[in-house]
Design a protein that fits this description.
Layout: E1 3-16, E2 19-32, E3 36-40, H1 47-54, E4 62-67, E5 70-71, H2 77-87, E6 88-91, H3 103-113, H4 118-131, H5 147-159, E7 165-169, H6 177-194, E8 197-202, H7 205-210, E9 213-218, E10 221-227
Parallel strand pairs: 3-8, 3-9, 6-7, 7-8
Antiparallel strand pairs: 1-2, 1-4, 4-5, 9-10
């Protein structure tokens, strides 16, 4: 199995006044292609910091992070931004859609930034909106969509660049039970169909139910790492 992300002895420290806290302390972790993994733990356990490091939004104080075959810990801010654009999709708790753009244009945006040709770009957007079940809402802006529909647009946008992995920070936190379940089912199906790795940071038992691997963090350490049976 191909390794998507590898962290080796990663530590991230933050200064709070004159004190120092280790948000992550000597963490080693591997995410393989096609995994559907939940990072869980109480507030302050380190899961959001870990997601930010995997997503090249932050840099560790110690250790090595590899994405695919690229060591990312030594890259400049511009190089990490380019890597994020082409290799990592993000799904956020508050959807983070551009309010003046339609659903179609929101999904298209990362492809425009990556310089994908017009015909291919449009074909990908149409295919993804259909895959998440909102092709009929392509011309609607975010304020014309329900929360569940906005999250579907965000999922489609995350997958548009055909990334190595998708990172999702509390993706069901602002959805009701039905829409949260539907969002997880869509991501689970796309994970299986496309082989894209998904990593979630979550408190939500609904997300844990769908995860095939659960990594538990506490006080900056991985304290448990186990696979779950796939829900029927």
């Amino acid at each position: 199995m191909t390794t998507t992300v590898r962290l080796e002895h990663v530590t991230r420290r933050y200064a709070i006044g004159t004190a120092e806290t280790r948000a992550l302390d000597d963490v080693s972790l591997t995410i393989e292609a096609g995994e559907f993994t939940a990072l869980v733990g109480p507030s302050g356990s380190g899961k959001t910091t870990l997601l930010q490091l995997i997503g090249c939004l932050d840099r560790p104080d110690q250790g090595v992070i590899t994405l695919g075959d690229q060591v990312v810990t030594g890259l400049s801010a511009d190089q990490r931004a380019d890597l994020r654009l082409r290799s990592i999709g993000f799904v956020f708790q508050f959807f983070a859609l551009v309010p003046v753009l339609t659903a179609f244009e929101n999904v298209e945006l990362p492809l425009l930034l990556a310089g994908v040709a017009t015909a291919e770009r449009r074909a990908r957007v149409h295919e993804l909106l259909d895959a998440v079940g909102i092709a009929d809402r392509a011309k609607h802006r975010p304020d014309q969509l329900s929360g569940g529909e906005q999250q579907r647009v965000a999922i489609a946008r995350a997958l548009a660049p055909r990334p190595l992995l998708v990172l999702a920070d509390e993706p069901t936190a602002n959805l009701d039970t039905v829409n949260g379940q539907q969002a997880m089912e869509i991501m689970q199906r796309l994970n299986r169909e496309r082989g894209t790795a998904f990593v979630f940071a979550t408190h939500d038992p609904r997300v844990m139910h769908y995860a095939r691997r659960i990594v538990e963090l506490r006080d900056g350490h991985v304290v448990a790492d186990h696979c779950e049976s796939v829900p029927s």
